[in-house]
Amino acid sequence: MYLFTSLVFFFVGGAAAILIRTQLALPNSVVLEPQQFNQAFTVHGTIMIFLWIIPMLTGAFGNYLVPIMIGAYDMAFPKMNALSYWLFLLGGLVLFVSFLVGAVPDVGWTAYPPYSIQSQGAGLDLWVTAVHILGLSSILAAINFIVTTLNMRAPGMTLNRMPLFVWANLVTSFIQLFGTPALAGAVTTLLLDRHAHTAFYDVANGGDPMMYQHLFWFYSHPAVYVMVIPAMGIVSEIMPVFARKPIFGYKAIAYSSVMIGFLGFLVWAHHMFVAGMQMSSGIPFMITSMIIAVPTAIKIFNWLATLWGGSIKYTTPMLFASLGFIGLFTIGGLSGVFLGAVPIDLNLHDTYFVIGHFHYVVFGGSMVAIIAGMFYWFPKVSGRMYMEKFGQFSFWLYFIGTNITFFPMFLIGMKGMPRRVFYYQPELETLNRVATAGSYLIGLASLLLVFNLFYSMFKGKKVTSDNPWGADTLEWTHTQTPPSEFNFEALPHVTSEPYNFGEKTKKGSLDDDGVTA
């Protein structure tokens, strides 16, 4: 349910992105009116973050994989789990009501005051309501994941034997639990300023608009890691399977997720260097922004070490996870280090350089990892194989399209083009045309992806084994394909570390996968 609902939202948000790029293909295009352009990037950002990437990673992948990976029959609170989904759907529908009443929000996905306070119509009110509902869904889901992971592991499944995706999902759940209330407080006080005439952000009455930014980014920067850490978990599951090696530095990868989750709450104000902060106040956030790159680099070097000397098989999920995620996310991460430095950010803030960085992270990172996970677990979910050559073709379309779309944005940004603009200087037309052409390639790749998976779901070749990849985690080794309703006939007993590819087991104590039923 999460999967199919999120896919619908993905194509709506993607259509908004195509409209934005079509408008920007020419410096004086009239595809969209200025107000419609503002509405398009507001809807695009809101849908892609709150209705696609986060619910896809935590809702779809998390719900399906966490219980089966830790040896549990189900989530701890099934009814709360269902409520989380229905709240997610309701939040999306509330946002879509704004389309029906002709009051689509136009304030960007950040909804900064003072403009958001003065925005006319019900669009922003519906946006705030949708964010509240989606936030409640996230909090309930986070509680459910934390309880499930900590209390319902199979016998022998210690924390240091959990699959790395479960580690990633656990850290993400704590981020959502502690970060989402700050966002709720920000949008609630925004609504009160609009309708109860309070003065939280109204400067004329003694309010402070910067306080909104502090509250908003205290959630929204950790939210980037809500979108990235589970994606890293997916990559960590795929790498050892297709390299036929144990994951290099299991504990380093697991604990670096914890470190990212902790440091993610200490960097929020690097979004605010030009918002009126004193320069001395920005220095600590610049330092933490540099430090948080360290645990991320630990993961990347450990993945590369996993690949080194491995018997690598470049299937579709491996292409997306290795060349796709590592290659594209590294560009996004390095460009983020630049933006975390105060003197550089003062010149590049709110330019298209930021757009390029952000999309290399959440599209080149999160989106590519989601696709890798779709292909990797597709045989387990459906009992059929996808079309391999078709999948590899879609990878190259995504990889080429992503670079053609977002790399020119670094150059456009360094030339001074601000984000959220309707028109631009004619000398930037060539780079913008290239970026627009790349977005069409991404759109085509998305259509081919969905066709491949939906066609294969009904017409694909049936798998001949419950574990076609020869993987080493519980969802592959001790369940049917597709799994039964409650995952396991009998709970497994875990007696070894995960990802033991090629390692000899103790004589007479374990199966090859290190698990006994």
UniProtKB/TrEMBL annotation:
SUPFAM superfamilies attached to this UniProt entry: Cytochrome c oxidase subunit I-like
Please provide the record's keywords in A-Z order.
Cell membrane, Copper, Electron transport, Heme, Iron, Membrane, Metal-binding, Respiratory chain, Translocase, Transmembrane, Transmembrane helix, Transport
Q: Which residues cross the membrane?
A: 49-73, 85-104, 124-152, 164-184, 216-236, 248-271, 283-305, 317-338, 358-378, 390-414, 434-455
Q: Cellular location of this protein? A: Cell membrane; Membrane
Instruction: Indicate how the chain sits in the lipid bilayer.
Output: Multi-pass membrane protein
What's the superkingdom here?
Answer: Bacteria
Query: In this protein, which residues make up the domain named Cytochrome oxidase subunit I profile?
Result: 1-495
Region entry Disordered, spans: 497-517
What single Pfam family name could you report for this chain, choosing any that match? COX1
The annotated pathway is: Energy metabolism; oxidative phosphorylation
So what EC number does this one have?
Answer: 7.1.1.9
Q: Which reaction does it catalyse?
A: 4 Fe(II)-[cytochrome c] + O2 + 8 H(+)(in) = 4 Fe(III)-[cytochrome c] + 2 H2O + 4 H(+)(out)
PANTHER family with a match to the protein in the record: CYTOCHROME C OXIDASE SUBUNIT 1
Name the family the entry cites.
Belongs to the heme-copper respiratory oxidase family.
Q: Please give the function described in this protein's UniProt entry.
A: Cytochrome c oxidase is the component of the respiratory chain that catalyzes the reduction of oxygen to water. Subunits 1-3 form the functional core of the enzyme complex. CO I is the catalytic subunit of the enzyme. Electrons originating in cytochrome c are transferred via the copper A center of subunit 2 and heme A of subunit 1 to the bimetallic center formed by heme A3 and copper B.
Record-given protein name: Cytochrome c oxidase subunit 1
